[in-house]
Design a protein that fits this description.
Belongs to the CD36 family. The chain is an alpha+beta fold. It has a domain at about 130-235. The chain is about 35% helix and about 25% strand. The chain has nine helices and twelve strands. It has helices spanning about 1-40, 50-55, 70-75, 120-125, 140-150, 155-170, 180-185, 200-210, 270-275; strands at about 60-70, 85-105, 110-120, 130-135, 175-180, 190, 220, 225-230, 235-245, 255-260, 295, 300-305. It has a five-stranded antiparallel sheet with strand order 1-2-3-9-10. A hairpin with a 5-residue loop joins strand 7 (about 220) and strand 8. The chain is elongated, with a radius of gyration of 28 Å.
Length: about 325
């Protein structure tokens, strides 16, 4: 009987020891694997992850659909618009990073990021960049909204519109504009600021636009005129400093500074002016469905949270 008890005790002890060993090995193995993944993904000059980060090897395509208005006369008379969908206009997006400083103490990389777009004729066929579409003039609507937001001008809005719009937009007779896809997306709709020294309304409008320059849809040329476009063929997204992930893999890609600053002064409220998240080309490992990483958009100068929605087969 004593021998049977001893054997039973030994069996239980053995099972317990094996279970502890398996759990320990599983826990340690999981930590070892995660640590190895973190090391492989961390940004080290010359590594595979570094080269993939510099220039993404996976092609990125941007498909654009435009709704052209086919009955502008009816709309101008107060009727409902008829919309015709045109697209997709397909562009290849190329992102390239230019690193110029590695801070090993902070574990950060400072770099600039450029984006270029090239029109893909084959994937867009039979559509082309020279197709003419009729849309609401985005520059005219933008000017109207800016004027409406200037404190003290709301009561004078109609007067300012009558004074500023004709010289800035070549006396438009409608809120609609006929433009090629290339003009709408890249070249931009022009805003004439040459007469700002003779027209107080134009001067006020162009001065207000100066403060809107961080918003990337606006661009100022050598003549002092502005243009408003949805995209640009070449965009410099500014200077970023991000966490390289060597010390903390979970912080890989986190933006520490943008254009040498850790926050902005564009918006009302501290949260809106925070700089952080990722530049969307580099996310930390070990994300799951409950994770809510943020990406920083230089187009709107703000962070945008990413929330899991569903699996895609």
């Amino acid at each position: 009987m004593d021998i049977q008890k001893a054997l039973t005790f030994a069996l239980i002890l053995g099972i317990f020891a094996v279970s502890i060993t398996l759990l320990t090995d599983w826990f340690l193995l999981d930590r070892i694997v995660n640590a190895k993944i973190g090391q492989e993904l961390a940004l080290k000059n010359g590594s595979d992850s570094w080269n993939r980060w510099i220039e993404t090897p996976i092609p990125i395509y941007l498909k654009i659909y435009i709704f052209t208005v086919t009955n502008t006369d009816v709309v101008n008379s107060g009727g409902k618009p008829n919309l015709l969908e045109r697209g997709p206009y397909v562009y290849r997006e190329n992102r390239r990073k230019i690193p110029f400083h590695i801070n090993t103490l902070e574990d950060s990389v400072e770099y600039q990021q450029d984006i270029t777009y090239s029109f893909d004729k084959n994937l867009s066929y039979p559509l082309g960049e020279d197709d003419v579409v009729t849309v609401v003039n985005p520059a005219l609507v933008g000017v109207t909204n800016i004027l409406n937001d200037i404190e003290g001008l709301q009561s004078m809005m109609r007067i300012f519109m009558e004074l500023a719009v004709p010289p800035m937009f070549n006396s438009p007779d409608s809120i609609f504009i006929n433009a090629t896809v290339k003009e709408l997306l890249f070249s931009g709709i022009k805003l004439d600021c040459k007469r700002s020294d003779k027209n107080i309304a134009v001067f006020s409008m162009c001065s207000a636009l100066q403060h809107m320059m961080p918003i990337k849809v606006l661009e100022k040329d050598s003549n002092g005129d502005f243009s408003m476009a949805i995209l640009r063929h070449r965009q410099s997204l500014g200077t970023f400093s991000i966490n390289a992930g060597n010390k903390d893999p979970g912080a890989l890609g986190e933006i520490l500074r943008w254009n040498k600053k850790s926050d902005m002064s564009l918006w009302s409220g501290k949260r809106c002016n925070d700089i952080g998240g990722s530049d969307v080309t580099l996310l930390p490992p070990f994300l799951n469905r409950e994770s809510q990483p943020s990406v920083f958009s230089t187009d709107i100068c703000s962070m945008v949270p990413l929330v899991y929605k569903e699996d895609i087969n």
